[in-house]
Amino acid sequence: MCSVNRRIIHSATVMVLAALLVSPLARAGEAPLNFGLTAVILQNRSAFLDHWRRYLEQRLKRPVRFVQRRSYSEITELIGSGELDVAWVCGYPYVRNHQRMRLLVVPHWNGRPLYQSYLIVPAGDTRTRDFADLKGTVFAYSDPNSNSGYLVPRYEMLSARLNPKKLFRKTFFTWAHQDVVRAVADGLAQGGAVDGYIWETLARIKPALTDRTRVVRKSEWYGFPPLVTRTDLSASAFDRLRAVLTGMVDDPEGRRLLAELNLDGFGNDGPRTFDGVERIMHFVDAINARQP
């Protein structure tokens, strides 16, 4: 009998402790804010994401759940179907699917809501100057829906009257910009297209990796990968989330998180920020429709 009582008391104690460990926000029954991310932007950053999640929860007064997927297409589908509340996407899928999402904020890097695509080659390659010099080689893209890692390099090749479908011996997707850098550094690819912000950030935190690559050329400037919401997110939730993100620069903890991201902050930049992405998207679409 005493043994049974001890088991009952032990079970009750475990249940009480479990209840105490649950976030007060979750106990209050507040639905979590589902926040979509891909490895294209954030990779192997679990400690940072936990810190950012707690920061957002404290200021939004509701639970936050990060949802990570491999590709932009998966995140785009989830935000379009309403399964995500907010997502960090790219300018290309935002422009292509702008009717299925609402622009929330645009990150600022080096004082502007803009970034570039870099063409990189192995550090030992001192000959390559442009895409034409990579004819017959293996080339790495990041994601088929990435602006800097796919759309921009294809636009630049087509503008130079090069056919990206025939120029290289082989192409492949790494699904993360960091892995484009690694593929080129390790000699798995003789060239690659990478987000310039990611390359520069890696140069700060992993210089041993970027030192094994060389930046051959930098593209013109394009709208930085934005944060978007589902179209039917309530006005109050939208405004609160925007205020919290743009306000990160105004408090010490927010600035520490921004420093880890190598960003200046988040701004209320409008859709015109992505006019350049839209222009080259239409250019590439028109040529692809004509080319075999």
Structural commentary:
The strands form three sheets. This protein has a six-stranded mixed β-sheet, sandwiched between helices. The protein folds into two domains: 31-113 and 225-271, Periplasmic binding protein-like II (D-Maltodextrin-Binding Protein, domain 2); 117-219, Periplasmic binding protein-like II (D-Maltodextrin-Binding Protein, domain 2). Helix content is 45%, strand content 20%. The model is unreliable at 1-23 (pLDDT under 50). Helix 3 packs antiparallel against helix 12 (252-261) and helix 6 (147-159) crosses helix 13. It contains 13 helices and 13 strands. The chain is globular, with a radius of gyration of 22 Å. It has 292 residues and is α/β, with parallel strands linked by helices.
